[in-house]
Amino acid sequence: MKDIEQYGLLKDDEWELLPWIPNPRPPFQIWVKPEEIAPFFLVQHHPFALSLLLRIKDGFQANIFRKLGLEGSSKDWEALSKGMIKEWEEQNSGRDMFHFDSDEDIFCVFSQYIDDIMMFAKTLRAACGDEKLMRRFLAIGFNVTEG
Fold it and tell me: Is residue 97 over pLDDT 90?
């Protein structure tokens, strides 16, 4: 397991230079409140990106994953997220906005699109309160992952 701050962290020269952002990038503000996305949490990679993380050992929504024959592993969370991202990309014009850096202990999705990753965090957390929505996103996500 890495240190929490290392998930979603690239070397300085690996970050994509976003066309509309001046160099150096101005400070960004985290406007999502921790209680709005708990048990997910954010880690800053200032000034480059923001990571959304979840500790797998906490077993968040494990009962729903088990109902579907899944473990609630990082792979399962990535599939759920990929289903959401596919729908997100169809409704918005962004592509390749989100990236993963998970392992067996931590689920991690990160992005240089700061406002989008915060909105994604709120949307993912809200989706976790709806079993039918989770099922739909998982079905899409496993299809995206495998296909």
Answer: no
Q: What is the DSSP letter of 96?
A: S
* Entry pTM: 0.85
Residue range 44-73: average pLDDT? 92
Give the C-alpha separation, 46 to 51, whole Å: 11
Residues 6 or more apart in contact with residue 61 via CB below 8 angstroms: 72, 128, 134
Strand order, beta sheet including 99-100: 41-45, 49-55, 106-111, 99-100
**Residue entry with tokens 């200032």:** 46
CA gap 60, 43 in Å, rounded: 19
Alpha helices by DSSP H, 68-113: 74-91
